[in-house]
Structure formats: structure tokens, C-alpha cells
Write a structure and sequence with these properties.
Elements (H helix, E strand, L loop, with lengths): L1 H22 L6 E4 L4 E6 L7 E5 L3 E6 L2 E6 H6 L7 E2 L4 E2 L14 E4 L3 E5 L5 E5 H7 L1 H5 L11 H7 L4 E2 H6 L1 H14 L4 E2 L5 H11 L64 H11 L1 H9 L2 E9 L2 E9 L2 E3 L6 E4 L1
Parallel strand pairs: 11-12
Antiparallel strand pairs: 1-2, 2-3, 3-4, 4-5, 6-7, 8-9, 9-10, 13-14, 15-16
Helix pairs in contact: 9-10
């Protein structure tokens, strides 16, 4: 309802705004009754970026760049980025959230072409860029991806001709590291060429990306034929398409594989874009996609062999999506 009401006011505000900009004088707010209580509203912005806002009893409504947004007053006070409320060096709040009155409401509101100014009852002023509000609003986040991706099958990936990064460029230059990370974030896989076939050099590559996560396998582990381990990965059997560490509470975000020595036949690597497959399910079988993204499953790993005794359980849906925009971010 509030978006429809704000959108109704928007054409009137735009007409007034055009005249106001040409004459270069400030608006005088007018009262518009839309319920038993009066609502104060104002329109102000350049012709390129129209902006309308409404001051409601418990929240602030903003129409900016074609998007209707709603902000609770507590949220606006809590996210203040002034020097007394936020430490820009540590990117942490200084304000005690629990000290904010739940019925807080700004005493004064002003909006210019780029910024929202809120003055609170105690005289404290909060400033927000309209672009920042658009990016951090619930409505704005519904329209943007957290991580853009290139979904691929064999044909798409071959035609993309994604280049590998050389070992020297990867270790010695920020450009090489950036190229690797960009490939990984877009496609989910990336390659470093000419890495010396040693455990130490493999570890150097991993640590160039991030810290190495300690798991039940250790930080670095060797995949060899070891029948004392209760895991198919340590046998000579072929492994079909699968996802790893689904039984962790937080599955690994990146795994690094390096073939140090190969004897005999076999050992072919098969890579599949699970996000591409999930999108096909979303488009052609939406009901099944909803089931896979909403029904939690029990993912389990049991190992009892030799000196390895592990029993791990992770619970979660096969497809994990952000609730506000339904973007897929993880698969188990």
C-alpha cells in the first residue's frame, strides 16, 4: 500500500520539481492526508534522479531512482555513520544499539539531490547518501546480486577460453592474483599453470589466496590409494560428479587440487557447473527447485578405519539461496 501511495505522489512531485529546479528555489512541504494521521512529504532531486519521501509514524519511505524503499527509524539511527556512532578505521559500531528508544523518530528531515539528513530528538544528526540507502535497503538488495556469476556448460566454457594464470604472475603480481580470483568468482573454477610438483609450492599457492582451513583431513592432505581410510576418494575407483564436505556445518568455499605424481592410466578430472544445473531446474522445474532450496537434509560422513575415526553431520538444503533475492550461493 505504501509503495502505491508513494508512486501516486511521485508524478505530482516530479512536476513540481521540474518547475522548482528551473526557478532554483526551495520547496515548502505540504500536508497530504492518507489515513487518520497526517503525512508530511517532500520531493527534491535533479531532473535525472527524482526523489520523493514520506515521513510515517514508525518508518521513513523513500522513492529514489524508481525504487520504493522503507526504512524503520530504529534502523536509520542504528546505522548512523557519524564519528561518534561508527569507527571508520575498524568498520565497527560505536553506538550501543540497545540504547536506542524503540519509538524513536527524527525531529527534522531534509533531503537534497544526493543526501538524506536526519536530526534526532537529542540533536544528533545522521547523514546518508541516497545511493548508499538504495544499495543497503531491503528493496534495493532484491534487485542486485551478491556475487555475479557466469553459468556454463562445456560449450560455454570452451568458447569463453578462460586463460590460466602463470605460477610466477600469481605469486609475484597483484594482477595475476586478481585474474585468478576473478576467474574463480565468475566461473567457480580457476587454474594456475607451471606450479612445481611439490607439497611446499602447493601450500604457497593456497596461502596466496587465503589462510588454510583446518579440517579432519588436516590443512594439506594427500589423496593416494589408501585402503585403510573409509572413503572412496582414497581408492582407485572413479568418482562421478559430486560435491565435497557437504557434511560440514559450513562446507569448504574453495578446494585446491594439484597432481604431484601420476602413474598408470586414468585420473581424468571432470568439472561441472552445479549453478548452471540448478538454474535449469529453477527455470524448467520451479516446484522441485523450491523443495531443494527449502527442505533440509542430513548430510553425513562416517569413517572407522585405521587411526581415523570420524562421524560428522551437517544439516541443510541441497540448494542454499539468499531469502531476499533467491540468489543461489551454495550447494551441498
Amino acid at each position: 500500500m505504501w509503495c502505491r501511495r508513494l508512486a501516486w505522489l511521485y508524478p505530482q512531485a516530479r512536476g513540481l520539481l521540474t518547475k522548482g529546479v528551473k526557478r532554483q528555489h526551495r520547496w515548502t512541504p505540504r500536508l497530504q492526508r492518507s489515513s487518520p494521521s497526517a503525512v508530511r512529504w517532500l520531493s527534491t532531486a535533479s531532473e535525472a534522479q527524482e526523489c520523493s519521501w514520506l515521513l510515517q509514524a514508525d518508518h521513513f519511505e523513500l522513492l529514489y531512482s524508481g525504487t520504493c524503499m522503507r526504512f524503520d527509524y530504529v534502523w536509520l539511527r542504528d546505522h548512523c555513520r557519524s564519528a561518534s556512532c561508527y569507527n571508520t578505521k575498524t568498520n565497527q559500531r560505536s553506538l550501543d544499539t540497545a540504547s536506542i528508544e524503540l519509538d524513536i523518530k527524527p525531529a527534522q528531515v531534509r533531503v537534497d539531490q544526493t543526501t538524506l539528513y536526519l536530526t534526532w530528538p537529542d540533536g544528533h544528526m545522521t547523514r546518508y547518501s541516497l545511493e548508499w540507502l538504495s544499495q543497503h535497503s531491503y528493496e534495493g538488495q532484491k534487485q542486485q546480486l551478491v556475487q555475479p556469476r557466469v553459468l556454463w556448460n562445456e560449450k560455454i566454457y570452451r568458447e569463453a577460453n578462460v586463460p590460466a594464470v602463470s605460477y610466477s604472475a600469481f605469486l609475484e603480481t597483484n594482477e595475476g592474483l586478481k585474474d585468478f580470483l576473478q576467474n574463480f568468482l565468475l566461473y567457480g573454477i580457476a587454474f594456475v599453470d607451471d606450479v612445481p610438483a611439490t607439497r611446499e609450492d602447493t601450500e604457497r599457492v593456497a596461502e596466496r589466496i587465503s589462510h588454510i582451513r583446518e579440517t579432519i583431513y588436516g590443512k594439506m592432505w594427500d589423496l593416494t590409494s589408501d585402503f585403510s581410510r573409509g572413503d572412496t576418494a582414497y581408492t582407485k575407483l572413479a568418482l562421478d560428479r559430486h560435491t565435497d564436505t557437504t557434511y560440514f556445518q559450513e562446507p569448504c568455499g574453495m578446494q585446491l587440487f594439484h597432481c604431484l605424481r601420476h602413474e598408470g592410466t586414468g585420473g581424468r578430472t571432470l568439472l561441472v557447473d552445479g549453478f548452471f544445473g540448478a538454474e535449469q531446474v529453477r527455470q524448467h522445474h520451479p516446484e522441485e527447485f523450491e523443495i531443494l532450496s527449502n527442505i533440509p537434509l542430513r548430510h553425513e560422513y562416517i569413517e572407522n578405519g585405521g587411526r581415523s575415526h570420524n562421524h560428522m553431520v551437517g544439516i541443510g538444503p541441497v540448494l542454499n539461496v539468499y531469502p531476499w533475492n533467491k540468489e543461489l550461493y551454495m550447494m551441498r
